[in-house]
Amino acid sequence: MTRRKWLQGPAGGAGMLALAPRAFAAQAGAQAAGMQTGAQAAAQGSAQAGSGALITRAIPSTGERIPIVGLGSSATFAQVARSDDATALRQVLERMVELGGTVFDTAPGYGASEEVAGRIAQELGVADKLFWATKLNVAPRGGGAADPEAARRQLDASFQRIGKPVIDLVQVHNMGDIRTQLPILREMKEKGRVRYIGVTTTFEGQYEALIDAMRNEPLDFIGTNYAIDDRDAERTILPLARERGIAVLVYAPFGRTRLWRRVAGREVPGWASEFDAHSWGQFFLKYVASHPAVTSITPATSRPTNMIDNMGAARGRLPDEAQRKRMIELVEGLPAA
How far apart are CA 260 and CA 265, in angstroms? Predict the structure, then answer.
C-alpha cells in the first residue's frame, strides 16, 4: 500500500481530519458548494494543521534554527517535475511555506526537480524564504577523479536554477570524490556564495567513508537515511554528528515506501496521541525527529495533502525514550515489507 492509498482509505481520512479538521472541513464544504477549488480551500485552512509552536533545531556550526520537517525533491516529486503539469508541486511548496516550513532539499541528479522547483519558488515569491539545500556530484573521469571544471559548471547551473546569489547548503552527493569536490565547496563558502557545506550518502557501503569524512573534514552538515525500521544511523553516525557538531538532514524517513506497505490496513495506535501523532506519517516522522542529533527531515512528496500531514509532525510533543521503544516494538511486530 502506498501512502496515497492509505490517505484515501478510512484510516487515512480519519488521521487527516485529526490533523487539520478545519482545513479539510473547509475544503469539503467549498467543493460541495462549488465555490472554490480544493486547492484554494486547502490554502485557506492549511494553517490549522497541527498545534503548538513549530519545532526547530539549531545548526551546530552557527546556532541558526531551521524547522524539523522540510521537503525533499526525489521520488514522486522528481517524477512530477518531469511531467508537463507541475501544478501539484506548486501547491506542495505553497503548503510547506504556509505552515512554516523552509527547508527544501534537491539535487541536479533528481532530474528536473531543481530547475522546476527554482522556477516555481521564484514565481510564488518564496525563493528567499526557503533554506535551499542542493548537491554536487560530477561523475569521475574514467573511474578516476571528478573534473573540477565540470563540478564548477554544475554549481553554476544550480545557482541559475535556484535564482539566488547565495545557496544555503551544498553537499557532495553520495560521497562523490570528496577530495576534488569538497575543496570546491570550501572555496565557495569562503567567498560567501555558499553558507554551509557537507556530504551525503544513503548507501550502507559508503557509511565508512561518511564516518571518515565526519571525523576528518570541516563539515557543517551531513545527509543520510534514517527511519524507525532503518536505525543503523543511531549506532555511529548520529552520535558522531553530535560529538563533532555537525547538522543532520534525514532522507527516506518512511523507508521510501517500505513502511507504508508494513502498516497497510492498520489503524494508528491510540497511544500515539500522547506525542501528538495523528497519522502514520506523523508517527514515523516524530520517531526520527525525536533523536536529538536530527536537524531536519526532508521527505519527498508531490501531494499537498501529504505536505500538510508531514508539517503536522513538526508541531506538538515528540516521543520520549520509553515511547520510542514502544514505537519500535510495534513496527518490529509488523509483517516485513
Answer: 10
Radius of gyration for the chain, computed over Cα atoms and rounded to the nearest angstrom:
20
pLDDT digits (tens, 9 = 90+) for 90-106: 999 999 999 999 999 99
Beta strand extents in 179-286 (DSSP E only): 194-201, 221-225, 247-251
d(CA 331, CA 162): 39
Listing DSSP states for 264-315 in one string gives TT-PPPGGGGGGT--SHHHHHHHHHHTSTT--EE--B-S-HHHHHHHHHTTB
pTM for the model stands at 0.86
5 SS3 class:
helix
pLDDT-derived band at 20 (thresholds 50, 70, 90) equals very low
> Which residue(s) pair with 56 in the sheet?
67
Contact 113, 132 (CB under 8 A): no
CA 123-85-308 angle, to 5 degrees, is: 70
Bridge partners (DSSP) of residue 246 are: none
Tens digits of residue pLDDT in 285-294 = 999 999 999 9
CB contact at 8 A, 50 and 311 = yes
Cell readout for 315 is 508541531
